[in-house]
Design goal:
With 735 residues, the protein is an alpha+beta fold. The protein has 13 helices and 35 strands. α7 runs parallel beside α9. Bound molecules: alpha-D-galactopyranose.
Amino acid sequence: MMKSGLNQFLSLLLLLIPALLRAQTAVIPVETKDHVLLLQEDQQERIRTTYFGSAFTNQSDYQSVASQFHYDDANDGIYNAAYTPSGTWSLTEPAIEVKHADGNSSLELKYQSHTQQKQNDASTETRIVLKDPNYNFQVTLVYKAWAEENVIEQWTEIQHKENGAVMLEKYASADLYFTGDNFYLTSYHGRWAKEMQGKEEKLENGRKIIDSKLGTRAMLLQSPNFILSFDQPASENEGKVILGQLAWSGNFKLDFEVDTYDNLKFLAGINPYNSAYALPANQVFKTPSLIYAISNHGTGEASRGLHRWARKYRVLDGQGERLTLLNNWEATYFDFDEDKITGLFKDAKELGVDMFLLDDGWFANKYPRNSDRSGLGDWQENVKKLPSGIGHLVKEATKEGIKFGIWIEPEMVNPKSELYEQHLDWVIRQPDRPEVYYRNQLVLDLSNPEVQDFVFGVVDKLFTENPQLAFIKWDCNAVIYNAYSVYLAEQEMPQSQLYVDYVKGLYAVLERVRTKYPKVPIMLCSGGGGRGDYEALKYFTEFWPSDDTDPLERIFMQWDYSYFFPSIVTCNHVTDWGKQPIKFRVDVASMGKLGFDIVFSHLSEDEKVFCKQAVKNYDRFKEIIWHGDQYRLVNPHENDFSAVMYVNESKEKAVFFGYFISQRQRLITDKEPIKFNGLNPEKLYTIKEINLFPGKRSPLDSEKVYSGDFLMKAGYNPMINAGRTSVVLEIEERK
Ligand code: GLA
């Protein structure tokens, strides 16, 4: 009797322990230096977002926030749930929808536990475990906060121990909630050669959705980058903003909903469109990251935080060097041979760049790659064009004193290729429907491990055979039409996994490439900006923002990309696009990673002299562009001028770029100064105009000394006008 009485008492105690522990509900602040995302457990053991804003002076005050809100959740669910489940109590847009192994579609997520731990990468990681009381199913919300940069990266990890696979029908990365009255969203839209066209709008009640369904890339038509501004339209130096992106190289969905309390619910994740995923027991499904920087002082500070974070913690070799280059794409297209290419090495050498990049057209024999209609997939040197092979080119370039890089597009195939003939089952296509092409090509099925081996093999072979190969331009032009995988069918896995497994397969290949070749610079190109994302940039050193290299257009595009990416990752090439003089083209391309894609020998002597000097100047100031802070000074969308400057960390050196962009040339003059930013008010500076075209003299006095205070308050007039359409200034502390 005694024993059973004791047992009963112990069982009761065990039952009571969670309740006793819960007497105080969990309060979980995810903090950066200046901000906090506050998550709190409610009486039903659900986690809610109760605050997102400036950090409190006293941490003990966090406890009191929830009691200040009295939402009536009776008939509409809870809008501020930190990860809204579906099929139970919430009728708002869910973050997650599942079908359990037994076919039931209801989900409840209750708080279990959480941990907060400092990581080696200077971040603090918060992990919150939520569990369904009825099913052995759990979701971990993960938040990594970098205090110094005010950057948060968040994702979720889903796992279960059910009796069979659980179908994940929707699985967002983030479910955020912002209180306030007015929200302004800048989203980005575009098409080939017209990427990153920003539109700002005030969000009204209802849902605004930005998404993509392209399969192989996130961007082209819409972009996973966003700026959210609170209370007022986004501005550069004031106001609360968050800006960032969903870091995923495939289909994404951003969902902004102003709810009935006029607050904003923001869901971000993989696009659930045709993407139900069968998750076996005991495996973890990790969603991609939502990454954002927060500032109370406008987009400028937020971007600089994100840039610093990207360089230090995210982009491959973000704090390293990059190679300037001469590319042959627009110079030759597919029409070249060994002599033509080795001839161009001399141009690269004379120009003073670090490397020559051989573009498309060097491979395939049965169906030679002489146009974009054939040969893709057959990665053997074309013996007619390059009888002595790539190895010979690498040697010749090395003799010339420059490095050698090469273009590949290993995920794609032309139907006119040996690869297509031999491995039709590797190609994504509906077996019984007509094929649909994008740039005459189809996509290889990266969900298939054999295809992953093949793609890895293309890169591996190049490096193994040519250890001195210094660079790769990895292209990805096609999108996925007719989504169907022979491999998934054979494995009896759902076809709806293809979009996700494609991207996962790509990352698996990149992981292998980087394990074997950790540092070689690789540029990510995707027919214009399609793959500029922070998951891919773990493996790539830089990306190609757009095929549109018209410098006038680039002033806008580079401005818009710069909200999200540091200049070290954006490749800017001088080409023959647009009508601007060579000086204008080189100046614009210098605001990033500089390259040339022109026939150097066709330039006039003065133009050659200018380019060679500009490359030397770039070599002198590139450190500031690559690793310094960027200040956007004059917005091209709102003015007849545009200006950007970069300042190094010690604030001893800066570079300024200013452009005249008006079409109504005669009416616009250079009456007013431009206010500089980022300098030290106490320091004294001299300002020297550089990148002058031969024969031109600068009207600016390079001897005069200005205080940083003056330059940032009164400003400086660089005399940008119709006769001086692009001006580059080197600013140096006078010691
Ligand atoms: C894409 C790229 C170009 C060039 C071609 C080659 O369009 O954006 O820079 O490499 O492919 O086919």
